[in-house]
Amino acid sequence: AAYLRKNKINVSLLDLNYRISKTKIMNIDLIIKESIKLVEKESASVLGLICDTIHLPFCIEFIPKFKERNPNTKIILGGNHASANPKRMFELFPIDFVVIGEGELTILELLENIDDKTKHKNIQGIAYKQNEKININEKRPPINDLSELPLPAYDLIPNLKDYLKKDETEIGISASRGCPYSCSFCASNVFWGQQRFRPVKNIINEIKYLIQNYDIKKISLDDLCLTNNWIWLNELLSELTKLKLKIRGFARIDQLDKNILTRLVAAGFYRLYHGIESGSPRLRDLLKKGIKQ
Q1: Residue 195 three-state SS
Q2: How many whole angstroms from its chain centre is CA 275?
Q3: Is the dihedral of CA 92, 93, 98, 101 positive or negative?
């Protein structure tokens, strides 16, 4: 949303999970009806939906009914599940496009050319249907310099403070994208590709914005692995130490030692998650974990 807005595209954000939870509706048919009503209030010419695997049952129920009522609204799917199998998405739903993988550059180019069918074949990173044929274009290269992207458009969620528990005030952010490993069960390589790191100053600016505007006390660094680049991490930890926040994150267990753990704790880390997956070396090898013995 922030990248589109930076490029003069009018955009709004609607969190259906939050809005439906406030209605206390539990019946699936009523949830779909209310969701359609909420989306229609936005009067958008293009609807973008995330479709990770967990969202698939909702998409199956929502998209056909919404499209039937709003045939002229273009529907774009993104997310892990849609990116992993874009062809299947067109078989399941009456959609118009799939944005495959990292979305900012792709969706901007798509929106700028959405009504010109002659341009669609040249847009990297999309799948589309034309004359009953499903076309999957070549992948778009990942964004190498993540500082080119603006900070997330937090202001598009007017009720963001409602998401924060009064005793927690925690927000998750991403300091990098991607992962150098190829675990067989993980969507990261399909979606993000190789790991790229945001400049430390860029990350700290986002955290300071969140402190000033939302009084956060904790952050969750939602990167798949923080410890892959020690030079970068050391610089980041030095800056995080000054902010005196409580921090949690993810790290490979075979990349940690006492010195690294001491630095993490000094910077404010109180919890680290490890994807060990199995105590069996044979199973870890089958999962392509690449954990050193």
Answers
A1: coil
A2: 19
A3: negative
Pairing of strands 74-78, 97-99: parallel
Residue 257: is it exposed, middle or buried by C-beta count within 10 angstroms (0-12/13-18/19+)?
Answer: exposed
Residue 63 pLDDT: 98
pLDDT of amino acid 151: 95
Q: Is the pLDDT of residue 246 over 80?
A: yes
- Output the pLDDT for position 293: 62
End-to-end Cα distance, the chain:
43
- Is the per-residue pLDDT at 166 higher than 70? no
Q: What percent of the chain clears pLDDT 90, i.e. is strictly above it? A: 81
Widest Cα–Cα separation across the chain: 60
Cα torsion 129, 77, 185, 88: sign: negative
pLDDT value for 290? 86
**What pLDDT is recorded for position 11?**
96
Alpha carbon dihedral 252, 140, 220, 200, in 10-degree steps, equals 90
- Residue 57: helix, strand or coil by DSSP? helix
- Distances from the Cα of 285 to the Cαs of 140, 146, 159, 194, 278, in angstroms? 30, 32, 45, 20, 10
Q: In what order do the strands lie in the sheet with 218-221?
A: 170-173, 218-221, 246-250, 269-273
Task: Give the model's pLDDT for residue 167.
Answer: 62
User: Which residue do the tokens 């930076």 mark?
Assistant: 6
Give pTM, 2 decimals: 0.92
What element of type H or E holds 220?
strand 218-221
